[in-house]
Write a structure and sequence with these properties.
Length: 376
């Protein structure tokens, strides 16, 4: 198996467990009687510590290579996902979410570093499209697997099943022989300052757009289970709706290797922001499952097509030897969104309802689309 295929398969296992754990945490907390603000706090913990560690994680990968960080991260993810199964209850969820989020941070940064090192620079859009397809696959499998597992064996035991996936990934990487792809060249640690990266216009623009798109992902992952629960949908139905979103990201990313040869990166990013903003504007007007699935598919198309282009731009304009650090800075921005958006959305939805939260994010995404259009 080629290194690209192997590590895409590895990330599918780890990310399926991560996505499933986010959904299971939301539904388990609701089952335990948690308020929307508490649910938002739990989801924020998936990203709070990773937000602080993102840049250092990227520097670690640049310095040591990706293999060892992934091994330790997968072991930590197994522990975190298994915790609510071993010790059911709300307190265990607070510890588990922190551990799972931190562990997956290192998996995410390291695997992106590996994919960026495979092949030539002009192949990066295509390679990151294949990685994005892997994330779409796991994004679809995670909600489906989790929803049916909860309906079948209950919330706590569903975590036990989800823990088997990173355990398999850990076993596969532990037994794999051969070097792990790694980009050559590195800067000395004393010369590394994040502000230097922010002074690079190409990186700064991508960081801004990444933050806006991250809000789109976060609102979906947080509000759809909560919205579905409020209108009386079962866990498996919510899982099917969320899997429709992931299926759309898979479908659009399947076309990305061809699209990447014909369309400029910023044109794709502009379209992604516009489509996503329009989808969120319409979402709270509907409660029927077929329409919710349709809108989820539209949102998946919009959000799914941007990531490969963003990652290709990042690696192409990154200073030599600092690619992992650049991914870390972007991950910091994403995790800041992962931390703030669930908390803010939980508080706002409890105070004024869920519709204004959808519409506020729609406005932010459409404004981001206008900003991105100036780069085309």
């Amino acid at each position: 198996m080629s290194p690209l295929a192997f590590f895409v398969a590895l990330v599918i296992l780890a990310h399926t467990s991560f996505v499933g754990s986010r959904m299971a945490t939301t539904l388990y907390a609701i089952e335990l009687g948690a308020s929307p603000f508490t649910v938002g706090a739990l989801l924020a913990l998936f990203a709070a510590l990773p937000m602080l560690l993102s840049v250092s994680a990227g520097r670690l990968v640049d310095r040591t290579g990706p293999r060892r960080p992934i091994l330790f991260a997968l072991a930590a993810q197994v522990t975190g996902v298994a915790l609510p199964f071993v010790r059911p209850g709300l307190p265990a969820l607070f510890i588990a979410t922190t551990l799972i989020g931190t562990a997956f941070l290192y998996v995410h940064v390291a695997v992106n570093s590996i994919v960026g090192a495979v092949g030539r620079a002009d192949e990066r859009s295509i390679n990151f499209s294949w990685l994005a397809l892997g994330f779409s696959t796991s994004g679809s499998l995670g909600p489906l697997f989790t929803g049916f597992a909860i309906d079948w064996v209950g919330h706590a035991r569903a975590f036990g099943l989800l823990a088997l996936l990173p355990a398999l990934a850990l076993a596969l990487l532990w037994t794999r022989r051969g070097p792990v792809p790694r980009l050559p060249g590195r800067s000395e640690d004393g010369e590394r300052r994040v502000l230097d990266l922010l002074r690079i216009a190409g990186l700064r623009h991508v960081f801004i757009v990444s933050g806006i798109l991250a809000m789109g992902w976060d609102l979906y992952a947080f509000l759809i289970p909560l919205y579905g629960s409020r209108i009386g949908l079962s866990a498996s139905t919510i899982g099917v709706i969320m899997a429709t979103f992931a299926s759309a990201t898979f479908a659009v990313r399947l076309a990305m290797p061809t699209l990447a040869r014909r369309v400029r990166e910023w044109q794709v990013i502009t379209a992604a922001l516009g489509i996503t903003g329009a989808g969120y504007l319409a979402f709270p007007f509907f409660t029927g499952v077929p329409m919710l699935m349709t809108l989820s598919f539209v949102l998946g198309i919009g959000l799914g097509c941007a990531q490969p282009m963003i990652m290709a731009i990042l690696y192409n304009v990154s200073p030599p030897g600092r690619q992992g650090e650049v991914v870390g800075v972007r991950t910091f921005i994403l995790n800041a969104s992962h931390t703030v958006i669930p908390l803010a959305s939980g508080a706002l939805s409890a105070a004024i309802g869920m519709s204004p939260v959808f519409w506020a994010l729609s406005a932010a995404l459409l404004a981001g689309g206008w900003f991105a259009s100036r780069k085309t």
